[in-house]
């Protein structure tokens, strides 16, 4: 790999001129600039991003704050994996790179942890990162508010934050849950249960709200025993349906607040000797890959995963270049009807 000094020698210019070609191209005459760029391309030269950030006080690196401690399983969820890929692709298309910042045990070594978000803010400024993307691992909302008030450009995913250079991207969680529950009611179900996400999680609470509103619109009662807490993962869906089927009046339909839990519900129904959807109709939320390949294929509420990445990338770049805050983005959802709830 060629160095900047070698490029300078081959082009007959100073090292400082090579640096200006990549960091301040408008200060170098066109002929020299084109010669340096041509030689750099031929030799496969890549400017040092860290040095560039130090010299320009700007960076194409965006920090990702996401606690991947093995005790917090959020990073293993298929939906979040898909969302992260979409975000990385959207940033790359605009010349930005995603850098995962140290978290959990590693974070203490550099003085940064979600218990003390100031450490992350200082790290961001020290390395001249362009901004931060925040992904909630279950209980990070309070820390994210501190990030939002720091003045560092940041975009939170599925957590409502507000600040001078902060915004968030989320889905129409309430509307999607409302549509899913209304669909079950329209099929004639009068005992519709829901398996929720974890308490305190904003998408989870919005989906419960949508479920309640749909029942009210259909003239159906909200039964406390039909609202069972899960954690967005498969096992909690299985346990929830086992609990629901043990009721004196078990539900004939279940809206699960994630596809993972819906698959767990389907497995529990099958283990109990029930037929899906004849004996128990099931609807999920997310439209992850497994939803279309399980048997029966899962009716679900689809989120716009690529749209998440595009919206988050657009918002953070706008705040970096424009300096102000951006309005929150609420992406639409859509009901994908398959076989798990009949037709």
Automatic annotation (TrEMBL):
Keywords carried by this UniProt record: DNA-binding, Repressor, Transcription, Transcription regulation
Organism: Lentzea flava
Residue ranges of domain HTH lacI-type in the record: 2-56
Cited InterPro entries: HTH_LacI, LacI/GalR-like_sensor, Lambda_DNA-bd_dom_sf, Peripla_BP_I
PROSITE patterns: HTH_LACI_2 (PS50932)
Protein's UniProt name: LacI family transcriptional regulator
CDD domains registered for this protein in UniProt: HTH_LacI (cd01392), PBP1_LacI_sugar_binding-like (cd06267)
Domain of life: Bacteria
């Amino acid at each position: 790999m060629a160095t900047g000094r070698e490029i300078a020698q081959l082009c007959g210019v100073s090292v400082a001129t090579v640096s200006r070609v990549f960091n301040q191209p408008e200060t170098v005459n066109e002929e020299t600039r084109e010669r340096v760029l041509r030689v750099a391309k031929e030799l496969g030269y890549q400017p040092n991003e860290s040095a560039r950030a130090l010299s320009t006080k700007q960076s194409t690196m965006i920090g990702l704050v996401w606690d991947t401690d093995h005790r917090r399983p959020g990073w293993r969820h298929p939906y979040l994996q898909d969302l992260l890929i979409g975000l990385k692709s959207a940033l790359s298309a605009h010349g930005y790179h995603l850098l995962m910042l140290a978290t959990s045990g590693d974070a203490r070594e550099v003085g940064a942890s979600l218990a003390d978000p100031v450490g992350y803010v200082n790290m961001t400024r020290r390395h001249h990162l362009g901004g931060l993307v925040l992904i909630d691992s279950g209980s990070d909302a309070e820390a994210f508010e501190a990030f939002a008030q720091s003045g560092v450009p940041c975009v939170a995913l599925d957590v409502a934050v507000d600040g001078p250079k902060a915004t968030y991207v989320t889905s129409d969680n309430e509307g999607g849950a409302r549509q899913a529950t209304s669909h079950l009611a329209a099929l004639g179900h009068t005992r519709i249960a829901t398996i929720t996400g974890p308490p305190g999680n904003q998408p989870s609470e919005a989906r419960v709200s949508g479920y309640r509103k749909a029942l009210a619109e259909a003239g159906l009662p909200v039964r406390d025993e039909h609202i069972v807490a899960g954690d967005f993962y498969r096992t909690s869906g299985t346990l929830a349906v086992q609990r629901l089927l043990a009721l004196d009046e078990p539900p004939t339909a279940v809206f699960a607040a994630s596809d993972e839990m819906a698959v767990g519900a389907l497995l529990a129904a099958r283990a109990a000797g029930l037929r899906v959807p004849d004996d128990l109709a099931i609807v999920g939320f997310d439209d992850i890959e497994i939803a279309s390949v399980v048997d029966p294929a899962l009716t679900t509420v689809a989120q716009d995963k690529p749209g998440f990445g595009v919206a988050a990338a657009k918002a953070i770049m706008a705040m970096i270049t424009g300096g102000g805050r951006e309005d929150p983005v609420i992406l639409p959802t859509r009901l994908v009807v398959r076989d798990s709830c009949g037709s």
